[in-house]
Amino acid sequence: MLDTKLHPIMNRWPAQFPDRIQLYSFPTPNGVKASIMLEETSLPYEAHKVTLSDADVKSPEFLSLNPNNKIPAIIDPNGPDGEPIGLFESGAILLYLAEKSGKFIGQTKADKHRITQWLMFQMGGIGPMFGQLGFFHKFAGSEIEDPRPRERYVNEAKRLLNVLNQQLDGQDWIAREYSIADIAIAPWLRGLEFYGAKELVGWDDYTNVTAYLDRFLDRPAVQTGLVTPSRD
């Protein structure tokens, strides 16, 4: 059984409120999924800033919770059957918090599966493809002279945006009602601005998507989650 008080991660990021969910994260598109969900559900939590530097994510303390050295990760001292649980992977965390709170996962089993498919769409498509677009457009990959890698991810980003645009035609949220799928997808759409890639993908042409992101960013819980934990 996971012992929250003796867990190695507590040596580097001690819990001030050990009875609350402990969030280890940084405000990236993946990181804010967890903080936004915690804000939306009003589950008590304590946020710890884990930067993307090797000194943090590759430290023995963080690896003891997430061997894949990626944020976010959580420890819930009141997990299933009252036993503590530690989790990593943003999609898994969203599913866990939705089931724990009974929120944003739909009203029926069919709803849950429809929502989950769009969550997986983000995890397997939007996240990796947009991330590669950012790498080849803004970061180290931009130095590669061969245009084909960037073109590949630009075209794939456009395709994914078109899928979203069609799905959102006539509805406010990706699976009809607001859900963990939206909490997963929308932060990555916002990331296109950080990558300086909105014009590159023709952002303004996807009118359903642009209105969708505006609706998402208007939510108070989203506004708080986007800056939790603080970068400062």
TrEMBL record:
<feature type="domain" description="GST C-terminal">
    <location>
        <begin position="108"/>
        <end position="232"/>
    </location>
</feature>
<dbReference type="Pfam" id="PF02798">
    <property type="entry name" value="GST_N"/>
</dbReference>
<dbReference type="InterPro" id="IPR036282">
    <property type="entry name" value="Glutathione-S-Trfase_C_sf"/>
</dbReference>
<dbReference type="InterPro" id="IPR004045">
    <property type="entry name" value="Glutathione_S-Trfase_N"/>
</dbReference>
<keyword id="KW-0560">Oxidoreductase</keyword>
<protein>
    <submittedName>
        <fullName>Disulfide-bond oxidoreductase YfcG</fullName>
        <ecNumber>1.8.4.-</ecNumber>
    </submittedName>
</protein>
<dbReference type="GO" id="GO:0016491">
    <property type="term" value="F:oxidoreductase activity"/>
</dbReference>
<dbReference type="InterPro" id="IPR040079">
    <property type="entry name" value="Glutathione_S-Trfase"/>
</dbReference>
<dbReference type="InterPro" id="IPR010987">
    <property type="entry name" value="Glutathione-S-Trfase_C-like"/>
</dbReference>
<dbReference type="InterPro" id="IPR036249">
    <property type="entry name" value="Thioredoxin-like_sf"/>
</dbReference>
<dbReference type="Pfam" id="PF13410">
    <property type="entry name" value="GST_C_2"/>
</dbReference>
<feature type="domain" description="GST N-terminal">
    <location>
        <begin position="18"/>
        <end position="105"/>
    </location>
</feature>
